[in-house]
Predict the 3D structure of the following.
Amino acid sequence: MEKPLTAQQFSQILWAAQGITEANGLKRAAPSGGALYPADVYAVVGEHGVEDLPAGVYHYEPARHNIEKVGYEDKKRDVAVASLRQMWIASAAAVFVVTAQYSRITAKYGDRGVRYALIEVGHIGQNIFLQCQSLGLAAGIVGAFHDDRVAQAINARKHHEPLIVMPVGYRA
Ligand SMILES: Cc1cc2nc3c(=O)[nH]c(=O)nc-3n(C[C@H](O)[C@H](O)[C@H](O)COP(=O)(O)O)c2cc1C
């Protein structure tokens, strides 16, 4: 069993991914075409994965820098199985999943909005990597998974399509 992330580390990673960066503003830590923010961040937390946080799945709410519990069990194993049985994913302290809801951005930019959403999720992933590095944590990135099975494991809202899975923990 890995040492848990502190609540502060966990919170900081979520903030780096999609936190609001201006007082009373809307802008977030990663750039977004037209500031339309098609991405959402979910965190899959195991037993003792994050200090003082019960195992479950959490959805990040940027406006309040808060998390909403959307799942009540440790789903890391389900995410690992859905990721073509890359079981190393299940041993992470927490697994972040970034989704996109394309309609938020294609409404303005048409098909090109899909490109913008993918670019944006790339920025979010890089922010997670950089934040983890600065906290002395290790992070990985996974793109090989069944979209529908990961969406099911994290209880993703309708139209939130998983694009990257990022296991985070302490360096081995
Ligand atoms: C979009 C994307 C998808 C990836 N999917 C996986 C994956 O499913 N499993 C995995 O172990 N690594 C995955 N990787 C990580 C690459 O294998 C890794 O970045 C590459 O080997 C280079 O190593 P480095 O990132 O340590 O420099 C993915 C990377 C990217 C950018």
Notes: The longest strand covers residues 161-169. The chain has a mean pLDDT of 97. The pocket of flavin mononucleotide is lined by residues 86, 141-144 (CB under 6 Å). The helical segments are 7-18, 76-82, 103-109, 112-134, 147-153.
